[in-house]
């Protein structure tokens, strides 16, 4: 299982009881604003905004909140201007980490991310130091107890997906960027309920972390980065064996 998949699975399992789950709306709000600012407020002509709206609805974000965020992005309402940037670095054990940030103060965001890496036993690197290890892909995730495996496989391959990967309790559909929207629409057309559909950064290869203390350190650093105010998404290329993962999560 890829580092991204492992991290998604961990977040998925703890999400229902995570006291910091309320931060999701803040991240969604920023994404809606930036997507609307960059591509306009019409979702039919703005794929990024269309996906942001779908993500917001999936998290039960109120319609009024979605509309206000879009209006702030297009300038119809006054709002904060956010900039996007990416930070790259390493966790203990040589695990590569990509951090996507959306902020109204890049100096503050850089200082916060650098401090978190340092405190967590990692190191912040130069631009480009780990980005080459990841590919931008489409990812659609299904819970195994909600769908039929054969149907997921059939729809995915007919719609042009690259691969379907079976994890412990989920099915992951991987797509190229150009095929993501059509594959997602194919699942919608068959009313197959997915738990997540997003553009993500998938590691080309993974780093095995089989030392329990080091694995715990990696996950603690990932948590700390993701909890930072300006951070939108975190990606990594770790592979922690399931038996160790069960003991530390």
Quick structural overview:
By secondary structure, the chain is α+β, with helices and mostly antiparallel strands.
Topology:
Layout: H1 3-14, H2 23-39, H3 47-58, H4 63-74, E1 83-91, E2 95-103, H5 106-119, E3 123-124, E4 134-143, H6 149-159, E5 163-166, E6 170-175, H7 177-189, E7 196-203, E8 207-208, H8 212-227, E9 231-236, E10 238-239, H9 242-248
Parallel strand pairs: 8-10
Antiparallel strand pairs: 1-2, 1-3, 2-9, 4-6, 4-7, 5-6
Helix pairs in contact: 2-3, 2-4, 6-7
The ordered H/E elements are: HHHHEEHEEHEEHEEHEEH
Largest sheet: 4 strands, antiparallel
> Going across the major beta sheet, what is the strand order?
3-1-2-9
Judging by the overall fold, what is the CATH architecture of the largest domain?
A: 2-Layer Sandwich
Based on DSSP secondary structure assignment, what is the total number of beta strands?
10
């Amino acid at each position: 299982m890829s580092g991204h998949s492992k991290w998604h699975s961990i977040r998925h399992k703890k999400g229902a009881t995570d006291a910091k789950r309320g931060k999701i709306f803040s991240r969604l709000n920023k994404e809606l604003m930036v997507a609307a600012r960059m591509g306009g407020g019409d979702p039919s002509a703005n794929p990024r905004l269309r996906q942001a709206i779908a993500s917001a609805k999936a998290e039960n974000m109120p319609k009024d909140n979605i509309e206000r965020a879009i209006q702030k992005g297009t300038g119809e309402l006054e709002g904060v201007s956010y900039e996007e940037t990416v930070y790259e670095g390493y966790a203990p054990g040589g695990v590569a980490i990509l951090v996507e940030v959306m902020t109204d103060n890049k100096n503050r965001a850089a200082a916060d991310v650098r401090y978190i890496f340092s405190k967590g036993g990692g190191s912040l690197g130069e631009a480009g130091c780990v980005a080459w290890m990841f590919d931008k892909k489409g990812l659609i995730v299904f819970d195994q107890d909600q769908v039929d495996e054969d149907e997921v496989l059939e729809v995915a391959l007919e719609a042009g997906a690259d691969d379907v990967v079976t994890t412990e309790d989920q099915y992951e559909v991987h797509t190229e960027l150009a095929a993501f929207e059509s594959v997602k629409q194919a699942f919608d057309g068959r009313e197959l309920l997915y738990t997540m559909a997003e553009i993500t950064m998938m590691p080309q290869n993974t780093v095995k972390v089989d030392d329990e203390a080091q694995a715990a350190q990696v996950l603690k650093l990932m948590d700390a980065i993701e909890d930072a105010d300006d951070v939108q998404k975190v990606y990594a290329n770790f592979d922690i064996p399931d038996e160790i993962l069960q003991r530390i999560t």
